[in-house]
Design goal:
Length: about 130
C-alpha cells in the first residue's frame, strides 16, 4: 500500500479533510496521514461537518509532523495557502508536491469549508490516481 502525508501548519482543517477523503475514497490503494508543524490540538468541527455531508465520518486528531519523520512516504503534499501563510518544509522521505488551498478557518463560514473540501477531493483524487 502506498502512503501519503498531507502537511500544513495547524493540522485542523485542510490536511485533515485530505486525509479523510483519501482514506475514504482510495483506502484500498493509499493510506493517508495528516500532520502539522504547529498543530492546533483539535480537528475543526466545521471540517468534520463538511466531511459528514459527503458521507465521510472522520475521527482524526491534530498531529505533529515530527511523529512521522521516520516514515517512508511515497508522496508528501503541502496544502497551505502559500500566499497567506508560510507552508512547512518536509525534511523526511517521499516525493514532495504543493497544492494551495485557502484556510476556511479564517472565515469560519461552512460554505468555505465545503468549497475547500470539494477542491481537495477533486485535486487530491486526481493526483493520487495518477501517481
Amino acid at each position: 500500500m502506498k502512503k501519503v502525508l498531507f502537511l500544513c501548519t495547524g493540522n485542523s482543517c485542510r490536511s485533515q479533510m485530505a486525509e479523510a477523503i483519501v482514506n475514504a475514497r482510495l483506502g484500498d490503494v493509499w493510506e493517508a496521514i495528516s500532520a502539522g508543524t504547529k498543530p492546533a490540538g483539535y480537528v475543526h468541527p466545521k471540517a468534520l461537518a463538511a466531511l459528514s455531508e459527503i458521507g465521510i465520518r472522520h475521527e482524526g486528531r491534530s498531529k505533529r509532523a515530527v511523529e512521522f519523520q521516520d516514515v517512508d512516504f511515497d508522496l508528501v503534499v503541502t496544502v497551505c495557502d502559500s500566499a497567506a501563510e508560510e507552508c512547512p518544509i518536509w525534511l523526511g522521505k517521499g516525493k514532495r508536491t504543493h497544492h494551495s488551498f485557502p484556510d476556511p478557518a479564517l472565515t469560519d463560514d461552512i460554505n468555505d469549508f465545503r468549497k475547500v473540501r470539494d477542491d481537495i477531493e477533486k485535486v487530491m483524487l486526481e493526483l493520487l490516481q495518477e501517481a
